[in-house]
């Protein structure tokens, strides 16, 4: 970390960047010292992504100045930023699954002589880079697609070090990592900063910042609402207030008291569901109007269970019934027809067509309702999607812009909205109990979503349950599960280990149960 009389590694002064109809950055300030972890906070839509792309040379600011080692610079493209020593690791890692680890580390600056790639030399240097990161065990000849999420993060860092990066920007690096993998990520980050490399660390998990950060800058509505706050002594209430104007991180809607008759038929009934190597003998139920939350460590089988219920994976044993009627295994079409809708964890890769317009993404599951003689009515699609967008308070308003221009929270609203359209073409109201979607399967519904958008999504989910829809939700955020769900199921290593009313559990108990015996004990011979 630099002292007060040292020149900062990076300084941004009054950075402004506008797009048609949007002022994404409005006079942003940032100062990063060599060897520090500088945390960048802000809601989705606050300008973090745009700021990252300015640093990476993807966007050129309209005004303002950028100083690198005390000298003003302007990057015309990402290659220029990389050459200067600034590397960016995006949330969606830009690795090539079909190339080897070594090929990914040196992608774009392959080591060659007279046009011939020096593969053995490249592999040797890749091993050295990974060893610097404390991960010499990663095979440099293995295809990246075969690696775990944590190993892919390390390969991305290795690519940055292969360019001799002096500043590494990490966008939500822990979002897909298990608890032990996050601890290892922090160890690697500390190794980097001990050698004078600076890290800009972006995360919505405020507890992470306490463990890894030195200073924090907060963005709100494209402006800098706080600069260089000390992470260790700035309260969570203060950080959240500077991001949102509120003073609490989780804002849950009030639960309505509800009774389930013991002899009533569940909306969803799962009995003995099994997929070898993923989960075994899972039994659970969800009633109409109920939110059931599943939590556990990454790798405990939570997401695989949700996908199997939906038919995206084929069970090897057990049964799934909706309102007393059995569903065939591995048939998504039958699940949708029975009233199941899935919002997957990877919404950008699995649920959205990013280049297409909002209304087209909303109507995707009911597309045939807007077609006559093979021709679709775009105006009917827009009208239907507009009603859903208004219901969900989609921001910015309007349904004709590409869905990729929305923040993460609003993209998630689009995915939810898809399952609220009436399949019979009557769009006067969202789907009600007994028509259309009866059960929503939500996998990490607020992953990468800021504090303010979380509260909006919580209200939407609770309102749908109050209207009679069932919700089965997977989340790594324990406070989220306890605050939103009516009942909670705990998973560990492919098994359900406990079921309880949310009010009967606390965060410490949940963490103790899901982490007990998981990581170190399983690895023992």
The number of domains is 3
Give the CATH level 1 class of the largest domain: Alpha Beta
The rough form would be described as globular
Tell how many strands the DSSP assignment holds: 24
For the biggest sheet, the summary is: 6 strands, mixed
Tally of separate helices: 18
State the low-pLDDT regions, or none: 424-435, 517-525
* Fraction in beta strands: 15-25%
CATH topology label of the largest domain: Rossmann fold
Helix content bin: 25-40%
Please give the CATH architecture of the largest domain: 3-Layer(aba) Sandwich
Fourth-tier CATH superfamily name of the largest domain: P-loop containing nucleotide triphosphate hydrolases
Mean pLDDT: 84
Give the distance, in angstroms, between the N- and C-terminal Cα atoms: 42 Å
| Estimated radius of gyration | 24 Å
**How do the strands of the widest beta sheet line up side by side?**
6-9-10-3-11-12
Structural class category: alpha/beta
Note down, in words, how this protein is organized.
With about 525 residues, the protein is α/β, with parallel strands linked by helices. The protein folds into three domains: about 10-245, P-loop containing nucleotide triphosphate hydrolases (Rossmann fold), CATH 3.40.50; about 250-340 and about 440-525, P-loop containing nucleotide triphosphate hydrolases (Rossmann fold); about 360-435, no CATH class. It has 18 helices and 24 strands. The strands form six sheets. The protein has a six-stranded mixed sheet, sandwiched between helices. A six-stranded mixed sheet has the order 18-21-22-15-23-24, with helices on both faces. Strands 2-1-4-5 form a four-stranded antiparallel sheet, with no helix packed on it. Helix 14 (about 410-420) packs parallel to helix 15 (about 450-465). Mean pLDDT is about 85; it is low at about 425-435 and about 515-525.
């Amino acid at each position: 970390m630099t002292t007060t009389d040292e020149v900062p590694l990076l300084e941004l002064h009054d950075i402004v960047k506008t797009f048609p109809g949007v002022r994404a950055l409005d006079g942003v300030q940032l100062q990063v010292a060599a060897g520090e972890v500088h945390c960048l906070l802000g809601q989705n839509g606050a300008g973090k992504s745009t700021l990252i792309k300015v640093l990476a040379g993807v966007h050129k600011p309209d005004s303002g100045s950028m100083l690198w080692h005390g000298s003003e610079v302007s990057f015309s493209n990402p290659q220029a930023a990389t050459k200067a020593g600034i590397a960016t690791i995006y949330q969606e890692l830009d690795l090539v699954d079909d190339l080897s680890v070594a090929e990914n580390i040196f992608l774009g600056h392959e080591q060659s002589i007279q046009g011939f790639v020096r593969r053995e030399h490249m592999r040797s240097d890749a091993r050295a880079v990974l060893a610097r990161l404390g991960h010499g065990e990663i095979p440099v000849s293995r295809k990246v697609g075969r690696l775990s999420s944590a190993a892919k993060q390390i390969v991305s860092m290795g690519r940055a070090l292969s360019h001799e990066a002096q500043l590494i920007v990490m966008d939500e690096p822990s979002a897909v990592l298990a608890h032990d993998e996050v601890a290892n990520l922090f160890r690697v980050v500390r190794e980097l900063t001990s050698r004078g490399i600076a890290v800009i660390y972006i995360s919505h998990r405020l507890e992470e910042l306490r463990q890894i950060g030195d200073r924090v800058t907060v963005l709100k509505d494209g402006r800098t609402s706080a600069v260089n706050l000390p992470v260790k002594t700035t309260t969570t209430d203060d950080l959240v207030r500077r991001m949102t104007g509120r003073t609490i991180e989780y804002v849950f809607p009030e639960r309505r008291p509800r009774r389930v008759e013991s002899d009533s038929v569940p909306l969803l009934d799962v009995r003995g569901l099994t997929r070898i190597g993923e989960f075994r003998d899972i039994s659970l139920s969800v009633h109409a109007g109920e939110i059931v939350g599943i939590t556990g460590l990454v790798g405990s089988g939570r997401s695989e269970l949700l996908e199997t219920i939906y038919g995206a994976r084929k069970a090897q044993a057990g049964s799934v019934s909706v309102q007393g009627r059995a569903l065939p295994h591995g048939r998504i079409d039958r699940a949708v027809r029975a009233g199941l809708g899935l919002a997957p964890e990877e919404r950008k890769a699995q649920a959205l067509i990013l280049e297409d317009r909002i209304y087209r993404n909303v109507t995707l599951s009911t597309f045939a309702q807007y077609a006559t003689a093979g021709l679709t009515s775009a105006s009917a699609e827009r009208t239907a999607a507009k009603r859903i967008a208004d219901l969900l308070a989609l921001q910015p308003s309007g349904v004709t812009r590409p869905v990729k221009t929305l923040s993460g929270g609003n993209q998630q609203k689009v995915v939810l909205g898809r399952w609220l359209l009436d399949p019979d073409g009557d769009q006067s109201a969202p789907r009600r109990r007994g028509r259309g979607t009866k059960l929503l399967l939500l996998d990490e519904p607020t992953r990468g979503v800021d504090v303010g958008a979380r509260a909006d999504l919580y209200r939407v989910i609770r309102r749908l349950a109050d209207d009679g829809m069932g919700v089965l939700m997977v989340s790594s955020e324990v406070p989220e599960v306890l605050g939103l769900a009516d009942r909670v199921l705990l998973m560990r290593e492919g098994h359900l280990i406990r079921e309880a009313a949310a009010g009967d559990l606390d965060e410490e108990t949940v963490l103790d149960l899901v982490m007990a015996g998981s990581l170190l004990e399983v690895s023992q011979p």
